[in-house]
Design brief:
Strand order of the largest sheet: 1-14-13-12-11-10-8-2
Bound molecules: glutamine, zinc ion
CATH class of the largest domain: Alpha Beta
Radius of gyration: 27 Å
Number of strands: 24
CATH topology of the largest domain: TIM Barrel
Strand content: 5-15%
Number of helices: 28
Largest sheet: 8 strands, parallel
Shape: globular
Structural class: alpha/beta
């Protein structure tokens, strides 16, 4: 039996890489300094794994930005627009690389970055390869060889990790018509061969090909490509040991394909899809070994050793221990680095957790235990593990019977507003008296350095609670006054008291805990620190009423209450694994519902429940979409349905591509939905129009992601386009997302123009 790791976090346990990259970009350090930081992180990671006793330690899992972009550079998939950068920067490979990732606005050049998108269903974002017809590829970077050599120097014969050829192509985008990216397989294959030959020459024995698409729905053509590519590679390299790694879902209908590939090891994700084990061990051929992905690479919980050992025993019984490898479910890229840094966590909770470094040890312990070790330390670890697992089952920190009973008692009625939208609409019109094309914003106003400094000072104790409160009130009041002055119809309080739209709520809910250093890479140098939902969720006290009420007291116009929805809170947190996600989501929904009801009681008549993450929660396999959408939509409805007909519920989403879930969005039954669509120039609205979306819609009329101030005329144009497909009485006018990241200067200009556009459009409509 052997152990291996699919990939280790590369940001550094104190986010050293983030800091070094940002310093390099701003010219504060030179290239050699950045490279030193990179090499140190690699060495640290290798040592952690070596000391823990991992058999196959990965290399090339490190990256200065993104592993897919690394691949694009290695195979020379460099879009032509970057060639000039290479010239300007003396052919510095890393400068070219960063230009592809981040764009290049220097030296008289203005070159856009490559597109970025989510890595499967994670919160990690990769740089999308660009493909052209008849594209030629060429070995361009030596990063992978340098890393292999670096590991060798550290005394490790590492296992290079590369993105499998088929997955690499499937991750990319065709940038012109008339070809299929899979047609490029024959062109790119020689580069893969070249990479492998060099690695073999350097002494590599193992190669890990990441092929996550084998656990997704794929076309017949992709399946055929898998067969040709791996047969060819096998033919060229009869002695290299190939691992094909699948993760994020089960092999399911691709099992026979995966099992037929001429490779040495197949890795499967038994955290996401434990059910597949039985079928997999019964169908793989005798010359194929199986890597069991048992330790959750996507979450922060301690492994349940007893449970994992049962899986291992089952596999060993059927395959023999020589054909079994133990591993995390996927790369540890998605877990925080090291639990040891969490010195402030409640010890009982800390005892339930494992971050990357701890997970490495778990993998080794599982192998030892499965092999009948007599090592007393490991036997003790096992006892500790059993205790931790059983304490999670019963701890009063986690289990709150009142919450469980309430969730269980939820009925159909709880996710139903009192009356249909048609009736509610009349009530709301009477109560709210809004004009045609009402104007509003999405919630946040600029979080200036000043506002952030108040929060920092308050946290450090340099400002008293009363001082902090006064400053925030002044800022809120100014913002209310200003919105009144420029003539916005539905005001917001500005969200100055919030650090982050999930953290702000998590901090006030029971069942959440926050780490000090639990950073995970989101993209490039950007890291996020997701809250940990460890227990039953409840709301001990109102969370937003104070600020909404204060803002409402400052004006005679309507102030919109602002909440984050249950699906988004779930989606952007580490979620407990001892109950279904749907159950946790329902508990959060009930907490938000209480908040909605309290806001109404406090006189807030318009309440927005943001759900920007609802689409990204979609399962990877289409067959599971309906189940997810059912509970996700229900959770939203539970949160929204406690109020009277006359109270208007808004929701907001900021990812396009609603076409395939438009029916479910309509099922959410929000009275008003505001969506991002200024960048796609209202194309998105077609989905709503074709479907005849019945409720009100605020299609974003300008892009807040850029400092550019749009003109009134542009926005009138967009409003006209919107009216072509949606009846005027259904339309709202608003930016496409919150203004938190903008400066006041451009915000003021843009909103003044937006209000003018709405007024003009209303006049034009009436004549
Ligand atoms: N209300 C939030 C804001 O305005 C919404 C943010 C979002 O959609 N991501 O900041
Ligand atoms: Zn948004």
């Amino acid at each position: 039996m052997q152990t291996h790791i699919l990939g280790y976090p590369r940001i550094g346990s104190k986010r050293e890489l983030k800091k070094a990259c940002e310093q390099y970009w701003s010219g504060k350090i030179v290239l050699e300094e950045l490279l030193t930081v990179g090499r140190n992180i690699c060495n640290q990671n290798w040592n952690i794994q070596k000391e823990a006793g991992i058999d196959l330690i990965p290399c090339n899992d490190f990256s200065y930005y993104d592993q897919v972009l690394d691949m694009s550079l290695i195979v020379g998939a460099i879009p032509a627009r970057y060639h000039e950068v290479a010239l300007k920067r003396n052919n510095s490979e890393l400068d070219l690389y960063f230009a592809m990732a981040r764009g290049y606005q220097k030296d008289g050049l203005d070159i856009t970055a490559m597109e970025m998108t989510k890595w499967f269903d994670t919160n990690y974002h990769y740089i999308v390869p660009e493909f052209y017809k008849n594209q030629q590829f060429k070995l361009t970077s030596s990063k992978i060889f340098n890393e292999f050599a670096g590991a060798k120097q550290a005394g490790i014969n590492a296992k290079p990790v590369i993105i499998g050829l088929v997955s690499y192509l499937l991750l990319g985008k065709e940038k012109e018509e008339g070809f299929d990216k899979l047609d490029l397989a024959q062109n790119i294959l020689p580069v893969y061969v070249e990479i492998l030959s060099k690695l073999q020459e350097q002494g590599a024995e193992w190669i890990q090909f990441d092929e996550p698409f084998l656990s997704l729905d794929i076309t017949e053509k992709a399946k055929e490509t898998y067969i040709t590519v791996y047969s060819e590679l096998r033919k060229q390299f009869p002695t290299l040991k190939f691992i094909v790694a699948t993760y994020f879902d089960g092999l399911k209908d691709n099992l026979s394909l995966a099992a037929s590939l001429p490779v040495n090891v197949l890795h499967i994700d038994l955290v996401r899809n434990p059910e597949q084990l039985e079928e997999v061990i019964n169908s793989i051929p005798e010359n194929l070994s199986l890597s069991l992905g048992l330790v959750d690479g996507r979450n922060i919980w301690k492994n349940d050793f007893e449970k994992s050992l049962a899986f291992i025993n089952k596999a060993v019984e059927k395959l023999g221990s020589e054909r079994v490898l133990i591993a995390p479910s996927c790369s540890l890229l998605h877990s925080p680095c090291d639990l040891d840094f969490e010195t402030n966590l409640n010890p009982e909770i800390k005892n339930w957790l494992a971050f990357a470094k701890q997970k490495v040890k778990e993998v080794v312990n599982l192998k030892e235990l499965a092999s009948g070790t007599e090592n007393q330390d490991i036997i003790n670890d096992f006892e500790e593990n059993k205790k931790a697992v059983s304490s999670r089952k019963t701890s009063s920190l986690i289990h709150n019977n009142i919450v469980k009973q309430r969730a269980e008692a939820v009925t159909e009625e709880d996710s139903q507003r009192k009356n249909s939208f048609q009736i509610r609409r009349e009530e709301q019109q009477k109560a709210l008296q809004l004009p045609l094309f009402p104007t509003t914003t999405i919630g946040s106003f600029p979080q200036t350095a000043e506002v952030r400094s108040w929060r920092a000072k308050f946290k450090k104790g340099e400002l008293t609670a009363a001082q902090y409160d006064t400053l925030l009130k002044e800022e809120t009041q100014r913002t209310i006054r200003w919105q009144e002055e420029i003539g916005i119809d539905v005001l917001v309080h500005g969200e100055f008291e919030r650090n982050d739209m999930v953290e702000y709520f998590g901090e006030q809910l029971e069942g959440f805990v926050f780490t000090k250093n639990g950073w995970v890479q989101s993209y490039g140098s950007r890291c996020v620190k997701p809250p940990v939902i460890f227990g039953d969720v409840s709301r001990p006290a109102p969370m937003t009423v104070y600020w909404s009420q204060y803002a409402q007291s400052q004006t005679n116009q309507w102030v919109k209450g602002m909440l984050t929805g249950p699906v988004t809170i779930l989606q952007w947190s580490f979620v407990r694994d001892d109950q279904p996600r749907s159950e946790t989501c329902k508990q959060i929904a009930l907490a938000i519902r209480d908040e909605v009801v309290d806001l109404e009681k406090a006189g807030i008549r318009i309440i927005q429940i943001d759900e920007p993450a609802i689409r990204e929660g979609l399962p990877l396999r289409k067959a599971e979409w309906q189940n997810y959408l059912k509970w996700a939509v229900e959770a939203f409805r539970i949160s929204a349905s406690g109020v009277d007909d006359a109270t208007q519920i808004h929701t907001h989403m900021c990812y396009s591509e609603f076409n395939d879930i438009i029916k479910n969005i309509a099922d959410m039954d929000a009275d008003v939905i505001t969506i991002e669509c200024s960048r796609s120039q209202m194309e998105l609205l077609n989905a709503f129009a074709d479907f005849k979306y019945p409720n009100e819609i605020g299609p974003g009329v300008y892009d807040i992601h850029s400092p550019r101030v749009p003109s009134k005329e542009e926005m009138i144009e967009l409003l006209k386009k919107a009216q072509d497909v949606i009846p005027a009485h259904q339309l709202w006018v608003n930016p496409d997302c919150g203004l938190k990241t903008r400066h006041w200067e451009e915000t003021e200009k843009a909103l003044i123009a937006m209000v003018a556009a709405a007024k003009e459009a209303a006049v034009e409509y009436s004549i």
